[in-house]
Amino acid sequence: MRHLIRGRVLDFYADPTETEDNHRYLEDGAILVQDGLIVAVDDYAKLAEPGLPETDHRPNLILPGFIDTHIHFPQVQVIASWGAQLLDWLNTYTFPEEARFARQGHAPAMAEAFLDLLTAHGTTTAVAFCSVHPQSAEALFAAAESRNMAMIAGKVMMDRNAPAEVLDTPQQGYDDSKALIAKWHGRGRQRYAVTPRFAITSTPEQMEMAGQLAREHPDCHVQTHLSENLEEIEFTLSLYPQARDYLDIYETYGLLSDRLLLGHSIHLRPREIARMAETGSRAVFCPTSNLFLGSGLFDEGGLRAAGVVSGIATDVGGGTSYSMLQTLNEGYKILQLRDQKLHPLSAFHWATRGNALALGMADRIGTLAPGSDADLVVLDARATPAMALRMERAQTLAEELFILQILGDDRSIAQTYVAGQAMKTAG
Ligand code: GUN
Ligand code: ZN
């Protein structure tokens, strides 16, 4: 079925930090959608046809749906847990909560709630860590498939330094991951990410198995954590005394590539940055989490100058919001502390095409190019009284975007389309 979605249309074809000619903006634009795909984008007058069903979102902005490149599905009931930095936070709140995903019925219920939260916040694709239990990944993939929503997810592999209820073994972690890849990777819009949680919770034997999975499935992403917190780095290096630095552990097991997503990547040494650039390994900036857990200030400009590609992500439940708008807000503030400026055009590029590029998926998501999946977010820059008042003084698109970036949250999400389907019902 064909459907026309009308509004003020914006997407990016280049990175505004690098190129002045970077976006397309249509004041009275429309997106022609058929069978979950974008067929055409143009001025409304050029695409309108008698009898063609239409949804008019004017004066709201329509962009490609937001992409969240690092989030923890089993932490929906961990978000906003008080008073700890990374390692204590994991032991006190996170591991006990993730243990609950072994219970019958828990993962499927949480998966529906998680996907509802994502789309309510305008996020149409997420890269998710699941719990150690294969049924957590199974539940997330099944729920995403039933919505035709593109998920990249993996069960965490972890075999030490956590309670027994959230541990596997090198062989079990390998076998469970392998079975999930066989069932879900490439099925519809689902993709698997091999997920060794981080070096602290995996023995060398398990890291070896993770490397084997990555070699056997070069098409799968690999996701883990790197250099988030100083205590974490010290403990990690004590567990791998041979390693030259933290990244070297992942390198030793063959994990570095342009499919590798390294959550946080804050306290990096020059050698690590150079190796990330050489191998194409991605850094993932998690601003609300880095502030909440007191982890540190990500160096976007430094990594960019060195040639490292970065994604941006919520990292719920270390992160404090599902909203990519709030994530861009806190990202702006972190970069201020580094004397770097996150321009609103760069910010919205990052949450859409930039993250798609970091995932190597910009041919399917992150832009409105014909043939890509019709994942869209509709943004209302006047969603709250404070925003409406501020909008009275806004004169440019960039100003409107910045108001959304700083003041926006789920209240600014007028609609989210996943594969052409509206996720919010009227009312
Ligand atoms: N490092 C290892 N596991 C986690 C996690 O669940 N959250 C964060 N923020 N960092 C981690
Ligand atoms: Zn994380």
Low-confidence stretches: none
CATH superfamily of the largest domain: Metal-dependent hydrolases
- Strand proportion: 15-25%
Given the structure, what is the number of helices?
A: 15
Biggest β-sheet description: 9 strands, parallel
Give your account of this protein's structure:
- The protein has 427 residues and is an alpha/beta fold.
- It has 2 domains: 2-64 and 368-422, Urease, subunit C, domain 1 (Roll), CATH 2.30.40.10; 66-322, Alpha-Beta Barrel (TIM Barrel).
- It contains 15 helices and 16 strands.
- The protein has helices at 44-47, 86-99, 106-120, 134-146, 170-184, 204-216, 230-239, 246-252, 270-279, 287-292, 300-306, 324-337, 344-359, 385-391, 397-407; strands at residues 2-12, 23-34, 37-43, 54-64, 66-72, 123-129, 151-154, 156-157, 191-196, 221-226, 260-264, 282-285, 310-312, 376-379, 413-418, 421-422.
- The strands form 2 sheets. Strands 5, 6, 7, 8, 9, 10, 11, 12 and 13 form a 9-stranded parallel beta sheet that branches. Strands 3-2-1-4-14-15-16 form a 7-stranded mixed beta sheet.
- α6 links the parallel β9 (191-196) and β10 (221-226).
- α5 packs parallel to α6 (204-216).
- The longest helix is centred in the last third of the chain and has 16 residues, at 344-359.
- It is globular, with a radius of gyration of 21 Å.
- The two termini are 24 Å apart.
- The mean pLDDT is 98.
- The structure holds guanine and zinc ion.
Short description:
With 427 residues, the protein is α/β, with parallel strands linked by helices. It has 15 helices and 16 strands.
